[in-house]
Amino acid sequence: MNISTLRLSRAPMRIIIATAVACGSLAIQAGAHAEVQVGNTWQKVRETGVLRCGAGITPPYVTRDAKTQQYGGLFTELCRGFARDVLHVKPEFVDTSWPNMIAGVQSNKWDLAMSLSYTEERAKAIKFSAPVVYSSVTFVYNKNNPKLKTPPKTVEDLDKPDLSVAVMSGSIADKAVGAGMKTTNVMRLPGTDETRLALMSKRTDFMADDSATNLIVVAAHPETLSVFQPKPELVPQPACFGMNKAISDADIDVLNKYIEEQRKNGSIDKLTKQAVDATVASDK
């Protein structure tokens, strides 16, 4: 599997990932935003003048520059565009961890949770937007690991007591590994940076994460790392925005209309490519 196979919808859509380029901000094409009747949530946001977006780092969907601490990535730019072009307010990014993402939506600490995978369990607690992208759980490993005499072909090849896998605590990958792997040692860490460092420092044998995140890691270190994608796909999930249960259907429709506009005008493709290129460049 190569980095051009990231899916942006149920129909296959190829993203041709160029070599790393300088990180820059790609403005979302505003397009023509028709006036839509909205409910109480967006009205309250307009009254405060700020759209709060819960940010858990998940490249290329949500990123943060190590030097400037500025947020970037596909969902970040969509949040900026929705705030600016539709609600006419300022975006505010609230740093959080994945175990706290749902609770933050429920307690109204942020208006939108970015890059949240839809599950039936989560849908009992919060509401979701239309899917922005689709992905699944994959595994990255060191090709020179002496424990791995041959590349893995099935998840069972990874499920051995002498192997370990690093996951981001509370993520879909964490739940998939916990449910499907019975003997592997699971290393639960706070975020993507920590799981990647555990793999690169050889403290773990595998890193389980979102397919797009893992493809970025491999693209930055093609000489040593490889990615294993189970067949059939492991926990294929749509990545969406998450919102409080109290939000009206009319307000969700406003956000969904914006997402669809960005898909049709090509912004989702462009923003994803830019985020991947910038992340790969920062890792080199």
How is the biggest beta sheet arranged?
Answer: 10 strands, mixed
CATH evolutionary superfamily of the largest domain: Periplasmic binding protein-like II
**What is the N-to-C order of secondary-structure elements (H for helix, E for strand)?**
HEEEHEHEHEEEHEHEHEEHH
What is the CATH level 1 assignment of the largest domain? Alpha Beta
Separation, N- and C-terminal Cα atoms: 21 Å
Number of helices: 9
The CATH architecture designation of the largest domain is 3-Layer(aba) Sandwich
What's the CATH topology label of the largest domain? D-Maltodextrin-Binding Protein, domain 2
Signal peptide: 1-34
Organism: Caballeronia choica
Pfam families: SBP_bac_3
Protein name: Extracellular solute-binding protein
How would you describe this structure to a colleague?
- This protein is an alpha/beta fold and 284 residues long.
- The protein folds into two domains: 3-133 and 237-283, D-Maltodextrin-Binding Protein, domain 2; 135-235, Periplasmic binding protein-like II (D-Maltodextrin-Binding Protein, domain 2), CATH 3.40.190.
- Helices cover 33% and strands 22% of the residues.
- It has nine helices and twelve strands.
- It has helices spanning 40-48, 74-87, 101-106, 120-123, 172-180, 192-200, 211-220, 249-264, 267-283; strands spanning 50-55, 63-64, 71-72, 90-95, 112-117, 127-128, 133-142, 164-168, 185-189, 206-210, 225-228, 234-243.
- Strands 1, 4, 5, 6, 7, 8, 9, 10, 11 and 12 form a ten-stranded mixed sheet that branches. The protein has a two-stranded antiparallel ribbon with strand order 2-3.
- A hairpin with a 6-residue loop joins strand 2 and strand 3.
- The longest helix has 17 residues, at 267-283.
- The relative contact order is 0.23.
- Residues 1-34 form the signal peptide.
